Fold these 2 entries.
Entry 1:
Amino acid sequence: MNAAPLRVQIGELARRSITQTLRQPALIVPPIFFPLMLVAVNASGLQAATNIPGFPTDNYVDFAIAVAFIQGALFAMINAGSALARDVETGFLRRLAMTPMQRPALLLGHLTGVLLVALGSSLIYVLVGWIAGMHMAAGAGGVLGVLVLAMLIALGFAALGALIGLRTGSGEAVQGVFPLFFVLLFLSSSSLPRPLIEHDWFRTIATYNPISYLIEGIRALIIEGWDGEALALAFGIAIAIAVLALAGASQALRTRLVRT
Amino acid sequence: MRRFADVAGAIAWRTLKKYATTPSLLLPSLVFPLFFFVAFAGGLSSVSRVPGFDFPSGYTSFQFVFVFLQSSAFGGVFTGFGIAADFENGFSRRLLLSAPNRLAILGGYVLAALIRAVITGVVLFVVGLIGGMRIDGGVLDVLGLIALACGVSLAAALFAAGVAMRLRTIQAGPAMQMPVFLLLFIAPVYVPLDLLTGWVKTVARVNPVTPLLGAGRDFISGGTADLALAFGVAIGLVVVFALWAVRGLRSAEAAG
């Protein structure tokens, strides 16, 4: 009996991943609600910060909305990692290993549902931001740029989650890394531009923190327009994270299937 | 009374022992407030340059009060998680059968929440002082701030206990955490009330956390706090959520 072609295998696992995601509001609501809630609170609480000399915009929504995309990607990481860890815990992966299913299909299929939520969330962030008065300096093409970058970031973080889920085989361990990444998000230029951070130690951490550049890439499209340097850094880092995490997750899956 | 104290003491001791010997419970409750303090006081300090920002003791002290009250509230919420877990694994049902005074069960959990808040508060104070926090108020002011934090911790613990005893599952975690989180953040967190804008300002004006934060910041800066309002709100919250928690206990008793 011949195995189904790779695209069919990916399609089948993607369908399962999407169905699982759509059936659980807990996987859809938090990635949409929490980031927007934080933007709403910060936009009102820190609007006064736009009066600091050198602040790049007079509307804090323009500045803060970029953080929502990164938070959405963090949820993608947790959801992807938890789903794979659950498949390890319940033995689904072990049963799948006895079929002619190919590894790329397994990984890509799993990530599809999570990325679908990330895309939906990103569209909602843009829409809500626009309703709240967000101004897109890069124009209509900028919206596409934001969405492409956001999906790339979500892919990288989801693959990181998959890597952790496969390595540990524990949903609890995946949940446990969320605070770590949340800390990284806060220790970046998420609340103020790096040049306006007063404390040297904080500015240094934010400068070495790759999340700063991911945020600044999205922010550049919204506030400044097509800033080549900011976009090159953001896309470069997002691609690097995605490639490394996918390679790591693929390796972890190979190890997990060998153990099986 | 003796029976009440025995049961409450035993519950509090068990809860605190579990807290102290389980790193996954101990570390987040200590590390998260410190992280928020570092992130807010360190990353946002230039907000104090905003025209109209007139807090005399500096931005570190301004943020310290928020993080101090926030950690007290979350100490209470985490205790609610413990109550829910005890119901889920059946421990609480056995406890309801064996305790001569069931109100003491609630008392024990709340006492544990209070002691947790004190432990976290001490760590925060030490880190705050090392980090350059200025305390311009006197000893009485600092005691006032601590009393406010205890009130917040009690209110949050009673609220979370009420939810946990009604729903009796750890999946009720978001129902305990989210309302507290929202109340805390829809308040003058980053800047004084006058500098807030939009809908958050409207909500913050009627948010009970706002007078607590205002009084706490007055305490630390040596300003004139509206004691009647702040402690009135704190006591009111404790009374309302005590009733809520007792009714939750009755609901758990009825469920068997």
Entry 2:
Amino acid sequence: MNFQNKSSKLALIVMWGLLITGLGKYGIAFSVEGEEAKAQAVQPVMDCHESRVNGTSVTRVEGVVPQYGYPNIKCSKKTGIVLWYGDPYDGTIPMGQMPAFNDDTKVDFVNAVVKPREPQLMYFNMDPDKHCAVCHNGETVPFPKNKKPRLLAMHQDVVEDSLQLQHGRGAIWCLDCHSAKNRNKLIDHQGSEISFNQPQKLCGKCHGEVYIDWRRGIHGKRSGAWATGGKKRWWVCTECHNPHTVQKHRFEPITPQPAPALPRGMKNADHERSEKHVP
Amino acid sequence: MNKLTAFIVDFWSYALKGSPKYYAWLGFLSLFMLVGVYTTYRQLTEGMILTGATDEITWELYISNFIFTAHIAAAAILVVIPAFMYQHKGMKDLAVLGEIIALGFVSTGILFVVYHVGRPDRLWHMIPGLGYFNFPNSMLDFDVIVLNVYLIINLVAAYFLLYRRYVDRPVHGFFYRYLIWLAVLWGPLIHIITSAVLASNARMYSWASAVLPFAFLSMAGASGPAIIIIVFLIIRKYTKLQIDNTVIDLLSQIILWSLLVLSLVFAAEFFTVLYPSTHHAASLKFNMFGHNGLDMYVPWFWLIMAAIFGSFAALLFPKIRKSYDLYLPIICVIVFLAVLIEKPVILVFPAFSPSPLGEYTQYYPTFIEYANVLAVWAFGFMTLTVTLKGAVGILTGEVKYIEKAADTVEDAVPAK
């Protein structure tokens, strides 16, 4: 190659020109992609839920963790389910008094916290002070005389047909769990009141095995410190199970998250879907 | 001017002067290096996300190329061994060229590792004392040691010899001989340790194999002399340095028998894996036949196997081995490329499938990755070209120390 030659000089200039244009184009292509991603990120999902639809609703609040500027939660765009917590203890209260068993199911609940159920209940919150008692005060709606199943005129949205309660296969009815006199509370076998925030005490009165499993951390969900006695949020029974429909669905199916993105460059995962199973 | 500065000035001024063809070659390489400056900047600022590495396949083209450069670097001692162990006359002068080839490729390899690290500014974490050099638990520690020591050995050996030749003093003394012996011992070591880095991963079905070091050594024996023959043929054609035909013949013999050993190693591995056909055969089967239609590596596999067996068969014919202007260089290029491409498409990428979760994936390198790989290769070939040019000047006697009239009285006084 001889650089004195006019044509080789020209070829060199063209080559450099192509190189510089190519790099420029490449840079532009990349910066556009970045802007699109940013535009998508500014519209987060605000109304979210945990565990099941209408189980526990959470609203996204920005800047809950001030030192990092984190929101309280981040939610799935597709299902609205909470995927990430800025502060996992945001909106929690102490679990409250729990019976201590001095056997191998002994659990330290001192630092256990829960999300209160009461703010999640529609009828409970119809009156800010009297709650359910705004109607169930013995006068507007008289107190029932016994626990026998009867047709209800109201609350069909909770229990569709009160003669066919979808829990316990006819063996139990509303007033085995709800207090007849104080509708703001649930009741145990002895007639003592149980807060709506502690449904585990109510469910545990029949579902002993699952209750013990839950206490020992085998059943259900909890997040926080792993060590015994550490601060931990416990998910209570009714956050995942709807007690009024368990006979239909033990666990209400939720929309699954979309499949994770394929490894970069992979167009599809057809090779994973073959009939033949190759180890 | 003292002798050392004269050496440096004369060596580099000779190395950087050349014909238009020489400049065209350097210009061609610098084009890739220039693109590489931009892509390296991108990778250093934005991170490894710009490479094609995924959760499933975490080793990119960089590390694949590094393994290959280790092959070549180690194989350069095959020029040294005949000269010093078998007193091959023609080789004696050329040993230094082998050292320089080792030097060029080991530094290329270290550069590839730096790209693979992703955050090279954090390499100081490995300095014992300041950081934590996880010795002797981590195999990578051994690799760091063997590579850097090999680099230093070759750096010292090559420039020591060139300097001695430059000032016309005897070379083959006590120091040089033992340094060469050390280099000869150390060459295979960089290989065995690199194969140990791979083979120590019990989860990688196709790496956790006892034959891996032998495969590496035989691939080194094939691909190293291949590039050395090409370099020697180019030097013979374009410079005054005489390279005997017996040298080329010896190297092509080494390629031939290395390819035979390599074929045996492959055959033994394939039989041992495929006959029982356990779970451990999954990676190899994916490589050979694909997985339910996922078959990017299948043609490469058979092509490279054909290239290896074909080159072996071709080199059996003395006519081809003696065809210095046509068939031999072609075979050498084929062997070189086959072993180079074998690294990503047989050794590294298919080994990651199936993943611990049983996923099969293919690797798609990005533009940034290709550009960086080409830039590192361009850098490697440029240092190699320039250093070899200077070395040839010294070996042919074109660059020589000429006693000049002393400028000052001090200079005239001989050193004590």
